[in-house]
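During the practical work, I selected for study one protein's amino acid sequence and its backbone structure tokens, as given directly below:
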Amino acid sequence: MSDDQKKQLEEFESRIDQFHPGHSIDCVILGYHDRHLKILLLKWKHAELWSLPGGFVYTHESLEDAAYRVLKERTGLGSIFLSQFHTFGDVERQTAPSAPQAVMMENLYQKLPLKDPVRFRNWIQQRFITTGYFALVDFEKTEPRPDFLGERCEWIDLQQLPELLMDHDAIIKKALAQLRIQLNYLPVGLSLLPEKFTIQDLQKVYEAILQKKLDRSNFQRKILKLGFLNRHEKQMTGAANKAPFLYSFDERNYKELLTSGIGFSM
């Protein structure tokens, strides 16, 4: 355990009484890299346990403030798109870990340098209702950092997810379903892509989220007709006549379209 994680643990133990009992935050943090949609997961120490980045809610803060705090702690980013999508309150969600998972969790707790192990266990093993948030971030700008339970925080391809703790698989599925429903009203490209990109890059983002192929010419025609892209110099590839143009978002026009209630359909 690093010195920073030891400080996190000490602070957590000292402030347990300042958390709202029975409520937690779980964040589905999505990024886009190498034409694949990726999710940020926490790999637990001393165990083959993976989970969503999450945390607890201080009595003095709102749910949204708690989610932003957790996101900044895990990604290093302070200004990102965030949306609450569902609250998970099944009575059985706390007993969801399989027997092997439960054993690994207990082994991890035993290895933590706790000042008051009984108090820690009483808190961490109580029933929690969790509120899910999904966040869209620029992959290249993040600095993934684990909490005191984690060995590492790592980007994982959505098509290659490991076995997850408790109901976190269901939380991810619900987040993606909600993202697809709201896709035409969310700043997906603005949040996931770098400042300059090709039309094909933008199409690949939508295909990764929708999990289906889109007609290239139709997509390009629709996107350019909407008028929220600025065209820049070509992306040089060695074949000037085939080099694609680079684009950036006209943020004002893009956001006005998304908030107009009209949206746009892919």
